[in-house]
Request: fold
Amino acid sequence: MIPKTYYIVTFGCQMNERDSETLAGMLEQQGYTKAPEKKNAEVVILNTCSVRENADKRFFGVLGQLKHSHEQNPGMIVAVCGCMMQQQRIIDKLKAKYSWVDLVFGTHNISEFPRLFANVRDEKKRYVDVWDGAGEIVEGLPAKREYPFKAFVNIMYGCNNFCTYCIVPYTRGRERSRRPEDILAEVKQLADSGCKEIMLLGQNVNSYGKLKAGDIGYCYREEENGVDFAGLLKMIDEVPGIERIRFMTSHPKDLSDDLIDCYRTCRHLCKQIHLPVQSGSDKVLKEMHRIYDREQYFALVDKLRAACPDIAISTDIIVGFPGETDQDFEDTLDLVRRVRYDSAFTFLYSVREGTPAAVRDDQVPEDVKHERFNRLVDAIHEIQEEKSVWYQDKVLPVLVDGPSRTNSRVLTGRTENGRVVDFPGDKSLIGRIVNVRITKAQTFSNYGEVVECE
Ligand code: 5AD
Ligand code: SF4
Reply:
């Protein structure tokens, strides 16, 4: 075990990645540094996700592996946190079968981590401290960011939508928005330290600042010069040094004309939107409680493409929601072919205990789900293959991330609309935006050459 080192395993979405950056920042403030591997770190944190069952399974798999290292290294502290910890059945399982875990905390008390951690370390006691609901947003927490030139910035937390399949409103609580001045201060500080790309994060960024009576956090309707999400984007667009702005996730029900107009007016807003549709069947959308139908979704896509013809649109789709018929699935295929997504994340419906869809008795058989899933993936790939032709020989600005994961001798980066491009180049280009000509555009990878630097 290497003293004063830590290792964080993050499961799930960007919100979790951002939370892990906060936890890493807190540990670094106390003089800890990142360990090369979890098995020899003094502090190991598993930041969990519960959106689908396989995330649960992966967590218990990693935790099982850690048991041995924990036994071998008496000073090792294993902490678990994140969405899974907000469920009583998980806490019960941990207490019964994994009582050697040193610290359990939840999504609502991350700011308490330094105190909880000190208790565990100094008193050598085990702690379980999970809050049911969120308190006021805590500002000014440290963060150890992964890249100096691109950063996640939370703008809101929680979700009020209660889609009938989804556990997130139960694990992340009600929507709370950060104050615009706090967000802007963070963005300015990032820009001053050389950050070029900002990814604004929230479960439903389009409802930024919309609160119901009794909720906590910022509410633009109560402010004299209230700032909604479109207003926030415009303010961030003016921050000197910020060259790219992205956001996720956008719920179609709240996608306003003002926001669509930002694609015309905000110079730094990337030509990209992630707009989860979940299903192409009106019946399923209704049962999912998505609050839009396919025609409304098509209308949004048309408006987005009118405002920004080259916009890349990505989505999330769930296959095999309870009661999904062959015809419902055909409607999803039809929607996918009409929208022609640039990319899509496809998921097999996963039963989440505590959600309304979980107790339905018309669950779709596994083999049917898989068969539909494969057909959907094929349809998406076919479109992606056709769309990749557009990129051939185009010269596009690419923010250089670093060496490619698949071939460390070349660099990798993303175009404005999110496409990954690998190309040969000197490491001094990392963190810069360079013009790259796409010499080989393929469905899943692109190769190019630098034609000109910033
Ligand atoms: N089963 C399958 N996919 C789900 N998602 C959320 N809940 C479930 C579930 N129970 C998907 C949705 C969401 C994405 C983050 O995860 O598509 O947009
Ligand atoms: Fe889950 Fe729906 Fe909220 Fe997204 S909008 S986090 S799918 S409840």
